[in-house]
Specification:
The protein is about 95% helix and about 0% strand. It is mainly alpha-helical and about 80 residues long. The protein has one domain (about 1-84).
């Protein structure tokens, strides 16, 4: 009976040592994933804001191409007359 108890203690000690090693590995993986997320979130936000700004500039250029200076001057004069 004592031999069975001794073997179970040896098994438990080996098992807990292995569980401890696995939990350390898992925690390191989680820490690495957290660091990756913390670094990548601001980068993706900057990329998205840059795309929004860039598209705004593109559409501003396209909008200015469609309007001649004369028609813009006429519109500005009409707006000034309405405000008077």
């Amino acid at each position: 009976m004592a031999a069975i108890i001794d073997n179970s203690n040896a098994f438990n000690t080996a098992t807990w040592a292995r569980v401890s090693q696995l939990s350390e590995a898992i925690m390191l993986e989680l820490l690495g994933s957290l660091i990756f997320a913390v670094v990548m979130v601001p980068i993706f936000i900057a990329v998205i804001l840059g795309l929004i700004w860039g598209l705004g500039e593109v559409f501003n250029v396209l909008s200015n191409i469609g309007h001649s200076k004369e028609s813009r001057n006429q519109q500005q004069q009409a707006q000034q007359q309405q405000h008077r």
